[in-house]
Specification:
mainly alpha
Length: 176
């Protein structure tokens, strides 16, 4: 009995290692986009990914034909949403300042995503980067499909048409 259990645990570990080898890079990139951290300094994204993969490993035997990548992505989204809720009070209330990242170390896409609210980033990453359907995104977040569509449209508009800076001041002409 012990040998059989040890064999099952070894097989489970091998399967999970193969899954992580193939999916961790894409999941880490998605977590980095969610947290809007620079790719070379992303401790929150790495923590999110670690917790999502730990949960996926814990439920590995119960997947029974379910896609493990989908499960890990769901855990990543749920943990990000929960963390944003606890940190900011609600997913849609916090809009970070539009100041650039210090020393310019952030990549362009991350700096642009930092202008969005956590909820807008979550919907945009799930819909555009991960290719999750509106219905699945709505079910995952507990929102109506129309709301997900509106959030995605608002986020895309904010990305494609960034706010302008202050208008240039006109030089005053002094009559002589």
């Amino acid at each position: 009995m012990r040998e059989r259990r040890a064999f099952q645990n070894a097989r489970r570990a091998r399967e999970f290692e193969a899954f992580v080898a193939g999916a961790a890079g894409r999941l880490l990139h998605a977590a980095t986009l969610l947290t809007a951290e620079p790719p070379n300094a992303n401790p929150r994204a790495r923590r999110l990914l670690t917790l999502a993969l730990a949960h996926t490993y814990a439920s590995w035997d119960r997947l029974r034909g379910e896609d493990p990548y989908d499960r890990a992505r769901q855990q990543l989204a749920v943990r990000f949403a929960r963390g944003a809720w606890h940190q900011y009070g609600a997913l849609g209330r916090f809009r970070p300042s539009l100041s650039p990242s210090p020393s310019g170390s952030g990549s362009g896409s991350v700096a642009v995503l930092a202008r969005l609210t956590p909820q807008e980033r979550l919907v945009l990453v799930l819909r555009m980067y991960e290719g999750v359907a509106e219905e699945q995104t709505a079910a995952l977040l507990g929102l109506p499909v129309e709301r997900v569509r509106a959030i995605c449209a608002r986020a895309m508009t904010a990305l494609l048409h960034p706010p302008r800076g202050p208008a240039p001041t006109m030089a005053k002409v002094v009559p002589s």
